[in-house]
Design goal:
- Chain B: This is FdrA domain protein.
- Chain B: It comes from bioreactor metagenome.
- The complex is a heterodimer.
- Chain A is of the alpha+beta class.
- Chain A contains 14 helices and 15 strands.
- Chain A has two domains: 211 residues, Enterococcus faecalis V583 domain (Enterococcus faecalis V583 fold); 169 residues, v583 domain like (v583 fold, Alpha-Beta Complex), CATH 3.90.1700.10.
- In chain A, a hairpin with a 5-residue loop joins strand 12 and strand 13.
- In chain A, helix 5 packs across helix 7 and helix 6 packs across helix 7.
- Chain A is globular.
- Chain A starts with a helix and ends in a 5-residue tail after the last helix.
- Helix content of chain B is 44%, strand content 18%.
- Chain B contains three helices and two strands.
- In chain B, helix 2 links the parallel strand 1 and strand 2.
- Chain B is elongated and about 50 Å long.
- The chains are: A alpha+beta, B alpha+beta.
Chain lengths: 414, 57
């Protein structure tokens, strides 16, 4: 198909998708291809020996959580033995933040793209600081994962089912009007979710105390909804993938070592380059030297036209990721130069309700020399520590050059 | 040469391309200056320019 027409179709799908939170389940039961000895991770493919500290930490924690290892040493031995398989979340219609580790027993949210009929999955958010997704695996981290599986998940699952499904795109549209970028600021989205799910939680047939604990957990973590928003974005971008001739980016993700992109017209090929290290604000006691290179599947938000691309509409985010509001406006404005559309649904109130820059076109990235700008959480480079701050980072230009070279060499640009 | 020198006898209105600091310095001296938002094609990256030429035929 002609590149212009192919890109128009991809941009249409990115904007016309209607995504709902429709349920929850155990990964082993609902995530396509999931099995007991499989660990899913963030970013493009990577082997155990090349994984960064926080990803190895998260794998160690997951093996302990699954009861497959008793401690760090036995978990490391098992991970290196070849008995455990490692694959990207993206190969299983899933996305998860930071280390992005998903194992068989973990509860996941289920998203349905009702317009195009595809599904996406994500795990449930643990909070900030010492969490598995930032590479921590202490007893308290594993205990919380078990509480989420045994206590929180059944209640949330029933509440979501009672709701009949939640229109997540409508929730994100509204959150963008309320000062969220829906990547590193999720305060409005989480407040709206708590309000919506609250009425159904109260109808779940368990004790008030149990319901109260779940509500407090959701309400006490302003980033609770980031995973769900990411899965919405995955359901949207998957619908725009595999359009012959299209040069629109349909995935950007990082495993803490490599940054990878996929292009709609180039199939399931990953185009990778070394991940940059974010710069930003650090929690007390940590410095730039502690930061791991860029990690996580959460750049699916920028791929969909929110997150860093909508920072101009989230002035308060600079208090979390650093920089000034002027910078945030500049970042969003720059992204219009490398995208194909102004989103007809996601709007930026502070830019006179201009649609967010949506649909990164690799041709425009090469033409302008501008690369996608991303805001992100930062993990400590060593396993077992956790989150150290949040900041700003860019995608490496080499990913886009490699994709262009592949398209030419395979004759897919004809 | 004389005609070029003439402009320094008039009020200067400057369109600056390139380093933004030049524009800011002129503004600090109360000279009317506008910064043009311009970058060389492919950001000045010849490898990217070659890839684009091959890609777009």
């Amino acid at each position: 198909m002609d590149r212009k027409l192919a890109n128009e179709e991809a941009l249409k799908r990115l904007q016309d998708s209607e995504v709902y939170l429709v349920g929850a389940g155990k990964a082993i039961d609902v995530v396509p291809g999931m099995k007991k000895n499989l660990i899913l991770h963030a970013g493009p493919p990577i082997t155990w020996d090349r994984m960064c500290g926080p990803m190895q930490g998260a794998v160690i924690g997951a093996l302990i959580y699954e009861g497959m290892a008793a401690d760090e040493a036995s978990a490391r031995k098992l991970a290196a033995s070849g008995e455990i398989e490692f694959e990207p979340n993206h190969h299983h219609n899933a996305v998860c933040p930071m280390a992005g580790v998903m194992s068989a027993s973990m509860p996941v949210f289920i998203m349905e793209n009702k317009k195009y009929g595809n599904f996406a999955y994500t795990n449930m958010n643990e909070g900030l600081g010492k969490c598995l997704r930032f590479g921590a695996f202490s007893e308290s981290v594993v205990e919380r994962l078990h509480w989420m599986e045994d206590n929180m998940y059944p209640i949330i699952k029933e509440a979501v089912e009672l709701s009949g499904g939640i229109d997540w795109k409508a929730l994100v549209i509204q959150a963008l009007q309320m000062g969220d970028d829906c990547h590193n600021r999720n305060r409005a989205a989480t407040a709206m979710f708590a309000k919506m799910i609250g009425q159904y939680l109260s109808k779940v047939s368990v004790s008030k105390e149990e319901i109260s604990k779940v509500f407090e957990f959701i309400n006490g973590n302003e980033h609770f909804t980031i995973n769900i928003t990411m899965a919405m974005c995955k359901a949207i971008t998957d619908a725009a993938h595999n359009i012959e001739g299209s040069t629109i980016v349909t995935a950007m993700c990082r495993n803490g070592v490599d940054f990878g992109i996929r292009i709609s017209g180039l199939g399931d090929e990953w185009f990778t380059a070394p991940a940059n290290t974010p710069k930003g604000l650090f929690f007390p006691g940590f410095t730039q030297d502690d930061a791991n290179p860029d990690i996580g599947d959460s750049t699916i938000t920028e791929t969909t036209g929110i997150g860093g691309f909508a920072m101009a509409g989230a002035p308060a985010i600079v208090a979390f990721v650093g920089g000034t509001y002027k910078d945030a406006v500049k970042f969003t404005q720059e992204m219009y130069e490398i995208t194909g559309a102004e989103n007809k649904n996601f709007k930026i109130p502070t830019l006179d309700f201009r649609g967010t820059p949506t649909g990164i076109d690799m041709v425009k990235v090469l033409e302008t020399g501008l690369v996608p700008r991303i805001n992100t959480g930062m993990a400590h480079k060593d396993p077992g520590v956790g989150q150290v701050g949040a900041g700003l980072v860019t995608a490496p230009m080499d990913c886009f050059k490699k994709a262009a070279r592949f398209m030419v060499e395979k004759g897919l640009n004809k | 040469m004389k005609r070029v020198n003439d402009i320094f006898g008039k009020e200067l209105k400057v369109l600056n391309i390139g380093l933004e600091q030049f524009c800011e310095d002129l503004k600090d001296q109360n000279v009317t200056a506008v910064q043009m938002d311009w970058r060389p094609p492919a950001g000045g990256d010849s490898e990217a320019a070659d890839l684009l030429a091959a890609l777009l035929g």
